[in-house]
Amino acid sequence: MRRILVTNDDGIHSDGIIRLAECAKNFGEVWVIAPDGERSAASHSITLRTHLDIWPHDFPVSGVHAYSCSGMPADCVRAGGLCLMPGKPDVVLSGINYGYNAATDTQYSATVGAAFEGAFQGFRSIALSEEGTSCHEVADAYLKGILEKWIDRVLPWNWIVNVNFPGCPLKACKGLLENRRASKGSFYKDAYKEKEKLPGGGVRVEVAGIYNEDAEEGTDFRALVDGYVSVGFLRNVGSV
Ligand code: MN
Fold first, then answer.
1. How remote is the CA of residue 215 from the centroid of ligand 1, in Å?
2. What's the whole-number average pLDDT of the chain?
3. Distance 130 CA to ligand 1 centre (A)
4. Residue 91 is part of which domain span?
5. Rounded average pLDDT over 82-97
6. Which of 64, 91, 121, 139 is deepest in the core (most CB within 10 A)?
7. In sequence order, which residues have a C-beta less than 8 Å from that of residue 50 and are 6 or more positions away?
8. Separation of 153 CA from ligand 1 center, angstroms?
9. Using 50, 70 and 90 to split pLDDT, how confident is the model at 155?
10. How large is the average pLDDT for residues 139-154?
């Protein structure tokens, strides 16, 4: 029986972690350990200067162990896999994130960060993300098959599987592309705009990304722009 750790950077209340935990039950004993609120874009950050509080959580999927945590998604993998669970997880599933984690955006992603932490600990790890909140048809149709294929796959140390589902209706999805390399681009080219002047000569700015679909062939970004499910590998620091 596999022991599966499920987390999500959108928090334990997110729709994506509920759907992922429900599907993960097909593959083993599920331990949901996730932040008590939104932690998106926290990357691989962890909590070292204070304690972590972990509480049993009344999770809406029956038959799973569920805990909320005051820390980051990577903390959930560390504290969950090294302390809370009765033994190390066989696999970490991180997601399903609200919003793509493709191309260079993966560097900022705490969905990917949690999966990388799993890889650091020697656990097989899969990050899963989808385009948005409105249509889950593609994710829900492809999720189980993707887990069947990848959940036991042993990769080199510090490698993870990174999966993205387009948010289109299932009939508009063109299929699944594997071995997608990470694009050097991003869906939103970052820019900043001045929001207001602050007293004392300060200025308040906010990020104002500019959407583009300038994606190279063979990449995760290209697959998603073209309406495919994208599956690829990401390799974290420490590998040569
Ligand atoms: Mn998120």
1. 22
2. 96
3. 10
4. 3-182+215-235
5. 97
6. 139
7. none
8. 25
9. very high
10. 98
